[in-house]
Amino acid sequence: MSKARKTRNTLENTGNGHAHAVTREGLSSMAQPGREAVPGSAVLSEVASSQSKKPEAIRRAPGRKGGKREELMVPRAEFQSYYGKPILNEPTWQAPDIAGYLFLGGLAGAGGTIAAAAQASGRPGLAHVMKTGAAAAAGLSLVALVHDLGRPARFLNMLRMFKPTSPMSVGSWILAGFAPLSGAAAASAVTGKLRPIGAAATYGAGALGPALATYTAALISNTAVPAWHEGHREMPFVFASSATAAACGLGLLAAPADEVEPVRRLGAIAGMAEVGAAKFMEERMGLAAECYHEGAAGRLMKAAEVLTTAGAVGAAAGRRSALLRRAAGAALLTGSALTRFGIFKAGVASARDPKYTVVPQRERLEQEKAGSEAQAAPQPKAETGAETNAKAKATQ
Amino acid sequence: MAVVDVQISAFDNGQDPARATGYTDAPPRMGFFTDTSVCIGCKACEVACKEWNHVPEDGLVFTGMSYDNTQGLGADTWRHVAFIEQTKPMGAQITTPTQVAGGAVAGTDGPSTTAADGDNPVRWLMASDVCKHCTEAACLDVCPTGALIRTEFGTVVVQEDVCNGCGYCVPACPYGVIDERPNDGRMWKCTLCYDRLQVGAEPACAKSCPTDSIQFGPVDELRARADERLAQLHASGVPEARLYGHDPNDGVGGDGAFFLLLDEPEVYGLPPDPKVTTRDLPQMWRRVGMAALALAGGIAAVFAATPGQGTGAAMRRVLR
């Protein structure tokens, strides 16, 4: 620093003997700057460029290397932000509406498909439970969605167009198909009227069910929210298994004992898959996985894991005990709901902290930089003249 | 009627989003180049924007964050001037009394011998942030109602008579720009003064900027001007100057409103490497498809493997 100042002083004192400095009288011995004013232009460029390396070195935040857990805990000091303010705007969605919808939509979708399978395999009791459950869940999920709109009276605008780039648009159309079909199926099952139409509606809802249960993964992953977006590869599988576990939970709770066997088996598998898929997602997520372990989201995810595991084990062991089956069903249902609320809250938490936006992006930039440098090194001929010169200077 | 292409990331990499959307006779793409090196933090842009666009009050709070009580972009803040105080010299600027007294003004030859205490350099960074009007705009991609549109100027605008307040655009925006207006329920953001553009006037913020830190014009022209300005600053000893959002090859296909910054983007509250989320959507849909098939297949397999009613009985029930 002192060397730089020395150079600067000598430079200033050569020339016409005046220094360019901001004084009480204004900018001395210099024309007033126009639009092209240059900050610090009083001094020649060499001085400044000799200083330029310094802030760079201080600034370089090591960030996270590899995927080790202890290195995940990056202290706040290691990245820069604007007064710690979030970069993203927090989702305006309300947890009871949207996390509730993620759960209800999953329950309805998987329930609709199980209802169709139960109908096809001749299990009317199970089919009855799943049809009414799916219709109720679909109806409630519609209420939740409309309630969450800033302008609920305009909910029909959702069907103004079909847009594959918007999972919400795709989902609106799926739900617009599923809700009436599952409603018709349930109405026919409850009243015993129009059975052929009821059966057709059941199979129609059953065909749409898997889409309804899984599209919500694309819905939340297709955002800039780190804890949602970084899980976009695994989220559909978390949601598919969680939806199936919830629907099986409902079946275990309410279906007649002699028809419950398929959902008992399926529930055990889906519950374990839900816990496993969520763990796998967190493993592969990088820094934002922290949000699934801390705070309210962390507690919800932990509770979901415990309940879903217990539910799956209970379902597996509950072949002969109706009580155990019911308890397992309740645990699977609750576990699935908690998973959805946990994922929702983790996303909100990750949007609130600039760390989860800045650190991975900075890392990505540095990897790209390192990658392009490594690529450029063996083939200097591909570079532009300026780059080659710079590199040659650097190696000298 | 304009044909609206609904395609995934089909834009011509930053060059002409209006034409890619289906406008056949579009004017040149318009945007902002915000040169923060000449921003003086006067906030005329914030005020002009509020006045022209009739944007309501956005909270009267004292934050203690330098001179910034506005805090960030949102439904009711379409321009936001950031203030950053740093203990760094700005370029090779003469910043301290000691330098002035000891070195330059007194005219002594030797190096200043004053202790470093009390002559820490200070620089203020000021920058007026705004909606980036991305070439590949996530808010526009995810809007299910079509309330968000691409205008003929290549900008991104919310149609307030269509928006139903679903809120999807809010978490989709990688810059944290668009947000919900309380007690209104709809989503709002900078329109790049669409009304003024349509009559050939420049946006209110650029019009009011006393130092021309905010420059408005055709994006091509602004990019050339930005390159020139960057070279000028680098040649003048401001190596930390850099452009942000000008590159059509970045994660959003380049911004219609881009910046010259004097520090890393995150220092200004900007994401260092934003990416439009829709680029990963084809992969997401494939994964959703796989998961949906797994769900259907799993249910079918378990029902098929579970002894009970035979398929014969099932078929009879189906046909009945």
Q: Per DSSP, what share of the residues of chain A sits in E-state strands of 2 or more residues?
A: under 5%
Unreliable spans of chain B are: 1-14, 104-117
Question: How many domains make up the coordinates of chain B?
Answer: 2
- The separation of the N and C termini of chain A measures 25 Å
Which sheet architecture does the biggest sheet of chain B show?
4 strands, mixed
Radius of gyration of chain B: 26 Å
- Using the coordinates above, name the CATH class of one domain in chain A: Mainly Alpha
Quick check: average pLDDT of chain A?
82
Secondary-structure element order of chain A, as H and E? HEEHHHHHHHHHHHHHH
Specify the structural class of chain B: alpha+beta
Rounded to the nearest angstrom, the distance between the terminal CA atoms of chain B is 50 Å
Count of helical regions of chain A: 15
Order of helices and strands of chain B: HEHEHEHEEHEEHHEHEEHH
Low-confidence stretches of chain A: 1-20, 25-35, 40-77, 380-396
The third-level CATH topology of one domain in chain A is Formate dehydrogenase/DMSO reductase fold
- Please give the order of strands in the largest beta sheet of chain B: 8-1-10-9
